[in-house]
Write a structure and sequence with these properties.
It is a single chain. The protein starts with a strand and ends with a helix. It folds into two domains: 142 residues, 3-Layer(aba) Sandwich (Rossmann fold); 72 residues, no CATH class. The protein has 242 residues and is α/β, with parallel strands linked by helices. The strands form two sheets. A six-stranded mixed sheet has the order 6-7-8-3-9-10, with helices on both faces. It has a four-stranded antiparallel sheet with strand order 2-1-4-5, with helices on one face. The chain is 40% helix and 24% strand. It is built from ten helices and ten strands. It is globular. It binds adenosine-5'-triphosphate. Adenosine-5'-triphosphate (ATP) binds next to strand 2 and helix 1. It comes from Mesorhizobium plurifarium. Keywords: ATP-binding, Nucleotide-binding, Transport. GO terms for molecular function: ATP binding; ATP hydrolysis activity. It holds the Pfam family BCA_ABC_TP_C. InterPro entries: AAA+_ATPase, ABC_AA/LPS_Transport, ABC_transporter-like_ATP-bd, BCA_ABC_TP_C, P-loop_NTPase.
Length: 242
C-alpha cells in the first residue's frame, strides 16, 4: 500500500530552536494515527507544517504522490487536508448551521445551490450528533458541543486527511465516549491524525502511535508496543502515569 502522506527530513526552526527536527513520517490511508509526546515536543508545529499553516525550514511533504511542501493551506484543503484547529474557528454569533455552511460553500466551487449547501450542512451536523442544534447560536452551545461543531466543520470539507489537535480537551467523560465513536465513524472514509494527551483515548482509538520528543520521533508502533516501550515510559508515559 502507498502512504497517503509522507514527510522527509521535515524541519522547522524558531530562531535557534529546532521545534521539528528532521522528521521522516508516513501515514497509511484509512488509519487512525495518534501523535503523543511531552509539552513542547513539536507536535502542533509538525501538524501545522502538514496543513500549510506554517512553512518548513527544510524537508519535504508529499500528499497522495504530490509534493505539497510549498503549497498554500487553502490549496491543501482542496486536495483534502483539513486541520480543524486552523480552518474551523467557530463563530460565536452564527448558528451551528451557518458555521458549517461556511466550509460547505468552500467545497462547492462551481454552481452551488441552496439545496446542496443545506444537505451538506445537515449531513455533517448529523454525523456529529448536532442536527437538533442546527439553529442554536454557537455561543449558546456547551463547550463539548462547540468542539463537535469544529469537527463538523472539518468534516464538511470532505477531507481525505482530517487532522485534529487535542480534540477531547475540555470534554466531559460522556462526551469523550461519543467522540471516540465519531472518530471511528470518520475513519471509515478518511484518514485521521490526532494529537491527543488523553492516554485512554489514544490507546482505544489509535491503530498506531507516533511519539514526539524534542522535535524528533522517539518511537512509533501499535498501542501495545508504545505502552511497553521503555524509552517512551521514561520520556513521557512515566511522567503522566507515575
Ligand atoms: N511561533 C513560534 N515561535 C517561537 N517558538 C515557537 C513557536 N511555535 C512553537 N514554538 C516552540 O516550539 C516548540 C514546540 O512547540 P509545539 O507547540 O509544536 O509543541 P507541542 O508538542 O505541540 O506542545 P504542547 O503539547 O504543549 O501543545 C516549543 O518549544 C515552542 O515554544
Amino acid at each position: 500500500m502507498t502512504p497517503l502522506l509522507t514527510t522527509k527530513g521535515l524541519s522547522r526552526n524558531f530562531g535557534g530552536l529546532r521545534a521539528v527536527d528532521g522528521v521522516d513520517f508516513a501515514l497509511m490511508p484509512g488509519e487512525i494515527r495518534a501523535i503523543i509526546g511531552p509539552n513542547g515536543a513539536g507536535k502542533t508545529t509538525f501538524v501545522s507544517l502538514l496543513s500549510g499553516r506554517i512553512r518548513p525550514s527544510s524537508g519535504m511533504i508529499v500528499f497522495d504522490g504530490a509534493d505539497i511542501t510549498a503549497m498554500p493551506a487553502y490549496k491543501r484543503v482542496r486536495l483534502g487536508v483539513a486541520y480543524t484547529f486552523q480552518i474551523t474557528s467557530v463563530f460565536a454569533n452564527l448558528t451551528a448551521f451557518d458555521n458549517v455552511a461556511l466550509p460547505v460553500q468552500r467545497t462547492l466551487t462551481d454552481g452551488r445551490s441552496k439545496g446542496q449547501v443545506r444537505s451538506g450542512v445537515m449531513a455533517a451536523l448529523e454525523r456529529t450528533g448536532l442536527a437538533d442544534r442546527a439553529g442554536t447560536l454557537a455561543a449558546h452551545l456547551s463547550y463539548g458541543h462547540q468542539r463537535l461543531l469544529e469537527v463538523a466543520m472539518g468534516l464538511a470539507l470532505k477531507p481525505r486527511l482530517l487532522i485534529l489537535d487535542e480534540p477531547t480537551q475540555g470534554l466531559a467523560d460522556g462526551e469523550i465516549d461519543n467522540f471516540i465513536t465519531l472518530v471511528r465513524e470518520i475513519a471509515k472514509d478518511a484518514t485521521v491524525l490526532l494529537i491527543e494527551h488523553n492516554m485512554p483515548v489514544v490507546m482505544q482509538l489509535a491503530n498506531r502511535i507516533t511519539v514526539f520528543n524534542s522535535g524528533k520521533i522517539l518511537a512509533e508502533g501499535t498501542p501495545g508496543e508504545i505502552r511497553a516501550n521503555r524509552q517512551v515510559q521514561d520520556a513521557y508515559l512515566g511522567a503522566t502515569h507515575g
